[in-house]
């Protein structure tokens, strides 16, 4: 697996971990149910800035590899791989934007 794919997937995972302290309970509140074991994810609240920072670093590296650095070859396999990597990159970017603004959106909706 190429480095830009690994860093893009790492961005998705870090974004999910950064919002896991808040998104789980919010989803259950939206649907009108409650679940007690999600309070075990509260320890991730302290790690949220570090997770988001790591996700931003991985996303920056992926952007550099996918859009700024010249490709080594223009063969069909490399072009297909870059397209897949770019899709993963944009999914990671959307997840990171969501993770960064999730708490403000919840306050805006319920506030």
Termini separation comes to 44 Å
Order of helices and strands: HHH
Helix content percent band: over 70%
Number of helices, counting only DSSP H or I runs of 4 residues or more: 3
Give the total of domains.
Answer: 1
Largest sheet: none
Q: How much strand?
A: under 5%
Structural class: mainly alpha
Kindly report the average pLDDT value: 75
Q: Find the count of extended strands (DSSP E, 2+ residues).
A: 0
Alpha carbon gyration radius: 17 Å
Query: Which spans have pLDDT < 50 for at least 5 consecutive residues?
Result: none
What gross morphology would you assign? Answer: elongated
Describe the structure.
The protein is mainly α and 111 residues long. The protein has one domain. Helices cover 79% and strands 0% of the residues. The protein contains three helices and no strands. It has helices at residues 3-30, 44-68, 76-110. Helix 1 (3-30) packs parallel to helix 3 (76-110). It is elongated. 21% of the residues are buried. The mean pLDDT is 75.
Describe the secondary structure blueprint for this structure.
Elements: H1 3-30, H2 44-68, H3 76-110
Helix pairs in contact: 1-2, 1-3, 2-3
How do you describe this structure in short?
With 111 residues, the protein is mainly α.
Structure characteristics:
111 residues
